[in-house]
Amino acid sequence: MNVGFIGLGNMGRGIAANLLKAGHAMVVYNRTRSHADPLAAQGARVAETPGDCCRGDVVFTMVADDAALDAVTSGENGVLAALPAGSIHVSLSTISVALSERLAQAHARAGSVYVAAPVFGRPEAAAAAKLFVVAAGPAAALARCRPLFDAIGQRTYVLGEKAFVANAVKLAGNFMLAAAVESLGEAIALVRKYGVAPDQFLDLITSSVFTAPAYKIYGSLIAAEKYQPAGFRLPLGLKDVRLALAAGEAANVPLPLASLVRDRMITALARGYEEADWSVIGKISAESAGL
Amino acid sequence: MNVGFIGLGNMGRGIAANLLKAGHAMVVYNRTRSHADPLAAQGARVAETPGDCCRGDVVFTMVADDAALDAVTSGENGVLAALPAGSIHVSLSTISVALSERLAQAHARAGSVYVAAPVFGRPEAAAAAKLFVVAAGPAAALARCRPLFDAIGQRTYVLGEKAFVANAVKLAGNFMLAAAVESLGEAIALVRKYGVAPDQFLDLITSSVFTAPAYKIYGSLIAAEKYQPAGFRLPLGLKDVRLALAAGEAANVPLPLASLVRDRMITALARGYEEADWSVIGKISAESAGL
Amino acid sequence: MNVGFIGLGNMGRGIAANLLKAGHAMVVYNRTRSHADPLAAQGARVAETPGDCCRGDVVFTMVADDAALDAVTSGENGVLAALPAGSIHVSLSTISVALSERLAQAHARAGSVYVAAPVFGRPEAAAAAKLFVVAAGPAAALARCRPLFDAIGQRTYVLGEKAFVANAVKLAGNFMLAAAVESLGEAIALVRKYGVAPDQFLDLITSSVFTAPAYKIYGSLIAAEKYQPAGFRLPLGLKDVRLALAAGEAANVPLPLASLVRDRMITALARGYEEADWSVIGKISAESAGL
Amino acid sequence: MNVGFIGLGNMGRGIAANLLKAGHAMVVYNRTRSHADPLAAQGARVAETPGDCCRGDVVFTMVADDAALDAVTSGENGVLAALPAGSIHVSLSTISVALSERLAQAHARAGSVYVAAPVFGRPEAAAAAKLFVVAAGPAAALARCRPLFDAIGQRTYVLGEKAFVANAVKLAGNFMLAAAVESLGEAIALVRKYGVAPDQFLDLITSSVFTAPAYKIYGSLIAAEKYQPAGFRLPLGLKDVRLALAAGEAANVPLPLASLVRDRMITALARGYEEADWSVIGKISAESAGL
Predict the structure, then answer these.
(1) Torsion angle (degrees, nearest 10) of CA B207, B209, B213, B215
(2) What is the ipTM of this complex?
(3) Cα maximum dimension of chain D
């Protein structure tokens, strides 16, 4: 297929590379043009504007937040104006439910198709085509995108016709990850005070009741107090928790655990940990215990 | 070995049966004597008092809480008075750090040995000898107990000489389970409001980022809203979270997530869910969202 | 002076009436025109657009939220376009710090002057000219407005040149009110369970340590479980707490108590109490205790 | 009357002095005997044991916590053993609901009478006979104590026959004070970030919506960051919040705001503020905001 790709950050560059490898003709765009060089070297054409990526069958967007997605979709050189009728916009970014819904409607009015397909996985998983893809949108469009999803992830979950549902699920999942990190941070602070080495505790729980990768990955960062370089920066984590809370508020769902995590993250920002991985809230638990 | 076993509830009966099967001579005691009948049928002798269980090399206790352990260890027919010098008291119960420390000292004064060995696993795991044993105490005693631990669990973690450390770790682990349940409850309430079926969401997260048994087990209870019969009753869960908070307070470790879960559990009790599994806090999340 | 007034809701109509009484020539605007009738009967002229209110020295705005203020300030018939150079926009609404800052800049660019003057007090206080006015903006403009503030409130606090500071203070104050309501709700639920009549408890604390009006007013609503008609509707209260949280997040200030209150309010909305007074969170405390 | 008084700390010494001034014959006891010297100089007899204070009509106890009250009431030289049939034990301390109930039963068995009369007010109020007395117990006993209460406080609230109800109300009140302190701490941290001087904000809110002494007293401590010397030490404040939570748990009343305050106080202890006034949680709010 002819595929466009907008947004070549930590996640996007790996995903785009896997689409290239799968044999698709690619046009890529990134605000900072030099980030596109490696993909150009692999055969992608580099576009000058987001709209220039939109001449084919499908265009992917993978950007940091609502504002960034707004910037590449709106305006005369934006995705909405440029995408041909019948072509598909696959939105991979973790964005608000509200923006996802607005974009679905805008594409429908423009004659193009909007699919939400946020992904679970950190940059290494993106590079290894091991992402989990959570997709929702019109069934025919999802079917056309299936080979593309297969090229970037290990499994695709389809959640029906309403694109924003995929975003709600992604936000719920990220909230759960943040909650797991918070519980790790508090538990490790507790056992440290009783003389247990963090990695001993971590080995114990991740080989018994918490065998999930999330606990191993984040637990080892907290146990080692190694919060930099960040796999997923704190401000992005806070953004996701804030979006989960907003999705909750819009649907009258209180999320007290998300509120707790949000306050921890803001505390971490206030303490100057902006460049750290979002698991740095484990450090806040330690500091609050006088460690 | 000659082994005594005190406390034949949901967990204790499975553990005691596995010790019997491993070929040890057993004397068992339970406050409600009839609960001992199945073990008697398998060859155990039934004692009239806790002290009567303490004539051998090792006595296990597996009771509901601090008060129950106090009741079987103190007094003239209690474990402390009856256990011979050099024999070992293996305390499997989930109890407070403070009581564990007091018992270790009391046994030392009496010439006997105290080992804390709380376990992770629900009744089915106890019956299947699949528990995870978290043991701490004098090294020689732990070595002598090793075959006994091997008979009841799939793995034993040794945490050093101070018995109470094992209890702190067990409480930290149970707190983390409660936190996972709370995050499941909130996330499921959120996605339900956006039209996602709970089991679809659960399948998605437990096959991607949350592959741990804890998420599968508790997630399926919440998704199915099946809180009875209880695998682990709410008041016992509340007790564990309260003990984690007490351990935190004693060591100046704030545990805001444990506080949140405690408040949820009290709300569930106030709503009349005393007989439900502790995962019923997922129902509180649903009710708080108007579901 | 020649004064315009936009927004004749519960609060605005009382304030506008007091300005009229003080002898100022008034032009008023309200989206639902009929709400302007009583003021027309008292001598005010009724405008067709927000801009029509902006021909004089000062225009007041008193609307529900950021979106409503945006609606009356922007566009060709909005305040920003219509207000003559040198005239003053006095913004009484409880709005976000961010919008206040944007409006100050926009007015500066347009040659007009922006003053933020949010008020403390419920509708009865507005009608009785007993409000507390929290004002910030250019000193000369504040001096010119002084007689107007004196006509609507019992005291004016001046907070310097930066208009948004007044909004931050107003949001902090409203957050504190919400916190007081939450503490009343929890405390009353507690003593009820011990057999104390709510009004007896309330009489005790409001005549000893909590003599402030806030405790008397909201305490009596909770004690009497009389949440309707609403003096201040729940969704507006939630808006204010959300804005306080947003102001906190923008400045890296975690506000866990505000988060707690927000979750309570969302729970109340989910339970169907949208039309109730914001003190209805006291009912959530009672319900959570099984009362 | 012949009056005994046990516990001459910050609060007790002022109260005892006022009883002396009112003309009652006094016997006083304090664990550290030298604290009794000033009262001896005013005419009180100094007892060697708690029981020696119990020969008259009424004995007051005013000690730090449950353990201290247990120590002076139990044993052969304790209040329970020594107090003559028909004499009254007036328990002024802030203790648990549970201990209050146990003492009421123990006195009833012993033929003596137990009255709970916890007080609101800091040491200066105790010295000035300006306390608020919250009394409950048998009506006849309360009537006999009335002149004593009038000698130490500005007002007495009578809450019926069940002594422990007075303790529940006292704990609810102290919880509300702690909540007010927390809200002050968060609000002041917020406005400081927007450039508002704490005392300016405090003047504003305490002269408008929060005119209660509690806000003035604690607000000025937080605004001035003057947490020492402590009027009420942090560990005692934590004790009271913990007792409120325990009272809540015993009656199935979740108190999330009390949980939040408890976590703040533990954080403050972990940071080394054990000797500070309990309002030092305002410092935790500031530190969490990077101030």
Answers:
(1) -100
(2) 0.96
(3) 64
Tokens of A228: 């930099």
Q: Print burial letters for A194-207: b (CB count within 10 Å at least 16), e (below 16).
A: bebebeebbbbbbe
Residue B250: pLDDT band by 50, 70, 90 thresholds?
Answer: very high
Position of tokens 């352990």? B69
Token duo for residue C270: 């989910």
Q: Give the pLDDT score at D59.
A: 98
- Predicted pLDDT of residue A213: 87
Which chains does chain C touch, 3 or more C-beta pairs < 8 A? A, B, D
Residue C22 corresponds to which tokens in the numbers above? 């003080």
- Average pLDDT, stretch C197-213? 94
pLDDT digits (tens, 9 = 90+) for A130-176: 999 999 999 999 999 999 999 999 999 999 999 999 999 999 999 99
Residue D102 CA to its chain's centroid (Å): 19
> Nearest CA to A131 among A156, A108, A148, A106?
A156
Cβ contact (<8 Å) for C257 and D165?
no
Instruction: Summarize the confidence of residues D200-204 as an average pLDDT.
Output: 96
A164 interfacial to chain B (CB closer than 8 Å): yes
What's the pLDDT at D135? 98
Question: Residue A254 and residue C263: Cβ atoms within 8 Å?
Answer: yes
Look up residue B55 and give its DSSP letter. S
Say if residue A44's pLDDT is above 90: yes
D186 contacts chain A (CB < 8 A): no
Contact (Cβ atoms closer than 8 angstroms) between residue B116 and residue B167: yes
Q: How buried is B115 (Cβ within 10 angstroms: 0-12 exposed, 13-18 middle, 19+ buried)?
A: buried
pLDDT at A263 over 90: yes
Integer Cα distance of B244 and A22 in angstroms: 51
Residues 229-268 of C with CB under 8 A from B: 256, 267
Q: What is the mean pLDDT of chain C?
A: 96
**Cβ-nearest to A271 among D267, D270, D290:** D290
Structure tokens at D41: 């100089």
Cα B255 to Cα B68, B261, C273, D119: the distances in Å are 26, 10, 32, 31
User: Max CA-CA distance within chain C?
Assistant: 64
The mean pLDDT of chain D is 96
Chain A contact set for C249 (CB, 8 A): 238, 242, 262, 266
Q: What is the mean pLDDT of residues A101-123?
A: 97
Distance CA B43, CA B33 (A): 15
Tokens 């209040």 found at? D79
Asked whether the beta carbons of residue A194 and residue B252 sit closer than 8 angstroms, the reply is: no
Select from D286, D284, D277, D283 the least CA-distant residue to D228: D277
The percentage of residues in chain A with a pLDDT greater than 90, rounded to a whole number, is: 97
Identify the pLDDT of residue A36. 95
**H helix intervals, B31-110:** 37-41, 66-73, 79-82, 97-110
Backbone angles phi, psi at C48, to 5 degrees: -90, -25
As annotated, the active-site residues of D are 170
Span A187-217, pLDDT tens digits: 999 999 999 999 999 999 999 999 988 999 9
Contact between chains at B272 and C290 (C-beta distance less than 8 A): yes
Question: How far does B83 lie from chain D, in Å, by closest CA?
Answer: 31
Interface test with C, best of B193, B264, B288, B291 (most C CBs within 10 A): B288
Please check whether residue D205 touches C, CB under 8 A: yes
**DSSP of C213-252:** HHHHHHHHHHHTT---S-SSBHHHHHHHHHHHHHHHHHTT
Predicted confidence at residue B267, as pLDDT, reads: 98
Catalytic positions of B: 170
Residue matched to tokens 């006509």: C151
Name the E strands within chain C: 2-6, 25-29, 45-46, 58-61, 88-91, 113-116, 119-120, 131-135, 153-158
